[in-house]
Amino acid sequence: SLQEDSSQPGGYGWSKPINPHSQGYATSAPFYYMASKMIKNLGYMTLRPPILPNVAMGVLSGIGELGRHSKVVNPSHGTMIRMTFYWITDLPLTPT
To answer: By CB count within 10 A, which of 9, 13, 56, 95 is most buried?
Structure first.
């Protein structure tokens, strides 16, 4: 379970060792929480919608395009994007 741990980035970590291939998944939840908290500290709202299809949200957010194999394809990372975290915010963002 996720718990406070000062030895981990962001101050949160897991109670047992994680193999190197799973570290990205393990550190993504604290990152999501910290990014949402940062936006709230700036005075803007963040709202986490219900669970939505990962690939669809990746494509709609502009991370990449839908590939023939029904996965997100990114120019610099290829098909290595496994998870997308998203929230709705009133923070003014510049379109890219």
So the answer is: 13
* Helix/strand/coil (H/E/C) assignment for every residue in 31-65: HHHHHHHHHHHCCCCEECCCCCCHHHHHHHCCCCE
Amino acid letter at 8? Q
Q: What is the pLDDT of residues 72-95, one digit of tens each?
A: 999 998 988 877 778 889 999 887
Burial of 50-84, coded b for 16+ CB within 10 Å and e otherwise, reads eeeebbebbbeeebbeeeeeebbbeeeeeeebeeb
Mean pLDDT taken over the chain: 80
d(CA 56, CA 84): 10
> Under a CB-based contact definition with an 8 Å cutoff, are residues 63 and 81 in contact?
yes
Can you give the residue ranges of every domain in the chain?
44-96
**Type of residue numbered 17:** P
Tokens representing 38? 């940062």
